[in-house]
Specification:
The complex is a heterodimer of chains A (216) and B (89).
Chain A (H helix, E strand, L loop, with lengths): L12 H24 L5 H18 L1 E2 L11 H26 L8 H21 L7 H27 L8 H36 L1 H5 L4
Chain B lengths: L1 H30 L4 H9 L11 E2 L2 E3 L3 H22 L2
Antiparallel strand pairs in B: 1-2
The chains are: A mainly alpha (216), B mainly alpha (89).
Chain lengths: 216, 89
């Protein structure tokens, strides 16, 4: 859900390269972890394909709430595919989104970092919440909120660190503006939490073995 | 004990929902109705371009090129079903 909706040229070339390098390190680490794994989890590959398609499909749809927002199901990716596959999934979704004109190519690195934070925090929260509640719906719902809040914080941090070319606003003004934007974004997190909760609860009912194998 | 754990889940979830809805509505009332890109440009002090989303179904619209969206989505769906058929789940 958190996504830096800016055109190419908003960040300086230096910061575009920095965020791309950070993202490439993450992607390289994910590929390395998959490569050293002795047994290939082929079922997880299928799950990764499904969540990639679902995330891409829903990410491009602007929903007429609060003037226009969209979901991206990154917490669901974290819960169902785990952080290793999740890193690759968010990279693929961001590449394909840029390919159709949704988001700049230069911002893919930064957006992968934002989405990765949502994936890993939702994954860890979902697993950690097992001690708090046995309900899959509430575990997934709360993990979604935590993941998306974290994603918004990372998004704001990246913009503040990078700075935006061609604007005259102070850091405080940018922080205020982005905080309001994140607050409106979080309104949609309620919908995303319900969707994620319902999907996870349904899978837990019909195929609990899929959720038991979410460790990667 | 299990009942208490379940109640804990609904309480935490409910409290988060209420807080987020209040915060989101307050922020929305301060900023007004805007598309996501307009909202971004407004937050950063960039010139605001009116968003044009072409095809619009009951307020829902596709960001970017709709044809490419359809093609890529079709490829992803086919890939998902191929992996489901050969790798199972």
């Amino acid at each position: 859900m958190a996504h830096i909706h800016l055109e190419d040229g908003s960040f300086t070339l230096f910061w575009v390269i920095v965020w791309w390098l950070c993202a490439l390190v993450l992607i390289g680490s994910a590929l390395f972890l998959l490569r050293i794994k002795k047994t290939k989890d082929v079922k997880k590959i299928t799950m990764a394909a499904f969540v990639t398609a679902a995330s891409f499909a829903i990410f491009q749809v602007q929903i007429p709430i609060f003037g226009g927002v969209h979901l991206n199901l990154t917490p669901l990716i974290g819960i169902l595919a785990g952080p290793v596959f999740g890193t690759l999934i968010v990279f693929i979704v961001n590449i394909m989104s840029a390919a159709i004109g949704h988001g700049g190519w230069g911002l893919i690195g930064a957006n992968v970092l934002v989405n990765f934070s949502e994936v890993i925090v939702a994954y860890l929260s979902y697993r950690g919440l097992k001690k708090v509640t046995s309900s899959l719906f509430f575990r997934a719902g709360i993990a979604t909120f935590v993941g998306l809040i974290c994603g918004n914080i990372v998004m704001i941090a990246i913009i503040l660190i990078s700075g935006i070319q061609g604007i005259t606003q102070s850091t405080l003004q940018i922080l205020t503006g982005l905080s309001l934007l994140a607050a409106v974004n979080m309104g949609v997190a309620v919908i995303e939490a319900f969707i994620t909760g319902l999907i996870v609860a349904y899978i837990g009912k019909v195929r609990p073995d899929i959720l038991e194998g979410t460790v990667s | 004990m299990t009942l208490f754990k379940d109640k804990k889940g609904i309480i935490i979830f409910g409290v988060i929902v209420v807080i987020i809805v209040i915060v989101a509505l307050t922020a929305y009332s301060m900023t007004g109705p805007m598309g996501i890109e307009e909202r971004f440009n407004h937050a950063l002090g960039l010139p605001i371009n009116q968003e044009d989303h072409g095809n619009n179904w009951f307020g829902f619209s596709i960001e970017g090129n709709t044809l490419l969206y359809g093609i890529i989505l079709a490829v992803l769906i086919v890939a998902s079903f191929v992996s489901y058929k050969y790798l199972k789940i």
